[in-house]
Specification:
mainly beta, 23 strands, 4-stranded antiparallel beta sheet, single chain, 264 residues
Amino acid sequence: MDRRWPRSGSAVNSNGQVTGYLVVNGQNHAFLYGAGVTTDLNSWLNATSSQGNAINATGQLVGNSTNGGGSGFFYNGTVTDLNALVSASDPLKARVTLTAAVALNDNRLILASGTDSQDMSLHSYLVQGPWLDFAPGILDFASEAIGTVSADQSVTVKNSGTTTVQVGSVMVSGDFVIHANDCDTSLQAGGTCTIGVAFASSGSGDRTGGLTVASNGAPFVVPLLGASPISVTFTASPTSVPMAHQQSSRGRFRRAPLVPRRAE
């Protein structure tokens, strides 16, 4: 049974949105609460443990999870590993893993902490959170028969920043296909583009995948969920029951089941 209890709130913004962690089947899951709806971020993180630590005025949040041995994350409709936001020119990038995010402001500047794998020293980082926002953050398709293709569902990508953002490759994994994509190689400030995805099931049961959009070296992944009916075939085999001859009232013999007798 899936059981969820709010256990700890870590931060709240002026709009009444809250982050912290839920307890789900004995595991901590980061969450976002707002307008009466609780969103379990483990749908993106898929971690054994996670929690939200800070939230800004527009509802973006940061936290940490056990993914990859421990990493900080940024959530803005989808989840980004903070380590993907560290510049490739950073001399410590190969050694330091950002394990937690502890603060976030309205300009999406993130204060994070990391550990150096060589000497286990601690480092503080200030990284810029991405300005690409995705809605919806998950595409959940209805059940589809194997070998058929669903109607499209769309993801809208928005540049919420004040400068142009580069958009790289757009790919899907699993039993999903891209049917439409009007995202160019760049997206102007305030601009939007749309990606259409369909579910093309190739097997029974739950099917999962991801829509990945690259921007400035960081991958943004929108989880894709689908399912196909499971076919079960039952084969009946004859069962033989021991029989004994018994004379009927009409003088003919018929077969009757053997009935065990209790010892006298």
